[in-house]
Specification:
Helix content: 40-55%
Distance between the termini: 69 Å
Shape: globular
Number of domains: 1
CATH topology: TIM Barrel
Radius of gyration: 19 Å
CATH class: Alpha Beta
Number of strands: 8
Number of helices: 12
Strand order of the largest sheet: 1-2-3-4-5-6-7-8
Oligomer: single chain
Strand content: 15-25%
CATH architecture: Alpha-Beta Barrel
Length: about 270
């Protein structure tokens, strides 16, 4: 038996009040991409299972790759049954993100599925997170509750309205604003401008930020570096999903093609 548990450096940094920069892997689920994320200097990675084709077997391989380069893995899970939460944690995910959280009751159900007593009633299996059952059970239960990071996405008008109650739920660490779906919820999805620059979206950042400050929670969002990032940083955002695999690849390839054309077409 062992008492060793893999620490969650991302949650520790969040609790210290640090700013968190996170790259996303949304479509290209090759372990090499995980290695490249670490080579770029990141210490954690966000893996999307809500909008993607990734299954649990593929996720297991991505988590194994992340462990070889000492990356924390944060998984955005789709809405679904309880065992989807449990299995993702048993594969070794350091944190989970629940999309479209609209109420404190939804947040509490999430905590109940993801945490052991006294916070929840997660089932006790023997996965990678417990070193396949080799950890001393009491130590594992306490350490898993301490280190597992839980975030909920605020991407509906109801979620913004209930932000204070959601932020007050014990066990929730992060309220993550999804500006794209929030624009849809507000009926402004076809209006021009960038994702986060509409007054209604900025107002949502103000309200969610106030709730996070009142309850000692962190606010996050997905935004590329630039003026939008500065605007939401000034409103208290501390967790930034600042890039993803598709954009990195397309921008890299397009940049190389454009630079080549500049040389070959304009000698």
């Amino acid at each position: 038996m062992t008492t060793q548990y893999r620490p969650n450096r991302t949650k520790a940094a969040l609790l210290r009040g640090e700013t968190i920069a996170v790259p996303e892997i949304n479509r290209v689920f090759d372990p090499i991409v995980v290695e490249l994320v670490a080579e770029a200097g990141f210490t954690r990675v966000w893996i999307d299972m809500e909008h993607s084709h990734l299954n649990l077997a593929g996720l297991s391989n991505m988590i194994l790759a992340a462990r070889t380069v000492d990356l924390d893995v944060i998984v955005r899970i789709p809405h679904g049954p309880y065992n989807q939460v449990m299995k993702t944690l048993e594969l070794g995910a350091n944190g989970l993100i629940l999309p479209h959280c609209k109420s404190a009751d939804e947040a509490r159900r999430f905590v109940r599925m993801a945490k052991f007593r006294p916070l929840g009633l997660r089932g006790m299996g023997g996965g990678r997170d417990s070193r396949f059952g080799r950890m001393v059970r009491k130590d594992f239960l306490d350490l898993a509750n301490e280190h597992t990071l839980l975030g909920v996405m605020i991407e509906d008008a109801e979620g913004v309205d209930n932000a204070d109650a959601i932020a007050g739920v014990e066990g929730i660490d992060l309220l993550f604003i999804g500006p794209g779906d929030l624009r849809h919820s507000y009926g402004i999805e076809r209006e021009g401008g960038e994702q986060s620059d509409h007054p209604k979206i900025l107002g949502a950042f103000d309200k969610v930020g106030e709730a996070c400050r009142a309850h000692g929670k962190a606010m996050g969002t997905a935004v590329d570096p630039g003026e939008q990032m500065r605007a939401v940083f000034e409103r208290g955002t501390r967790w930034f999903n600042c890039c993803h695999d598709v954009t990195a690849l397309t921008n890299g390839y397009a940049g190389a093609l454009n630079a080549t054309n500049d040389i070959t077409e304009n000698p």
